[in-house]
Amino acid sequence: MAKQHASILASGQVYTETCMTFMKSEIRKSNSHRVDSFDRSNHTFMVHETVVPKEGRLIGHFSVNLPNKWCNCGKYQAKHMPCSHVIATCSSIKYDYWSLISDVYKVETVLKVYSEAFQPIPNEGYWPQYEGVKVCHNRLMRRVKKCRPKTKRIRTEMNTTDRVPRKFELC
Q: Domain SWIM-type: where (predicted)?
C-alpha cells in the first residue's frame, strides 16, 4: 500500500480521478458560456448559457460571486469544485480556477486520511443490543379537549339606527 501511495505522489498527480473527471466535463461545458460582468471590483458576474445543457434543463442565466464561492446552479456550493459557470467566469478574467477546488479532492489529503490505521470492527455478536430511538412526548404541546376552541373572529356592535359600527361608547 505504501508503494502505491508513493507512486501516486511521485507521478505528480495533484487531484483525485473523480475530481479530474468532473473538471474535464465542466471545462468542456464552459466553452459554450458567455460572461457579462456585473461588478468587476466585487467579482460578481452574470453567465449566459448558449447551448442547451445535457442535464435536462433549459438554457439559463446564472450569477456567480467568486469571493463568496457561490453560483445560482448550486453545483459549486454542493461539490466544492467550480461548476462550468465559475470556470467560464474565471477564464474571462484570467483567474486560475484550479485554486478554487477544495483540499479534500487533493491526492495528498486523501492519502493522509488513509495513512492512519483504523480500528477493526468487532463481530456483531459483541455489539450492544439496539432498542431504537426513544421518543418522549411534550405535555405542554398537548391540546386541551375540554371545550370548543375560542373564536378569533372580531365582532363589532352595530347601531340599529344609523348602521355604523360602534367600537367605542360616546360620552
A: 62-94
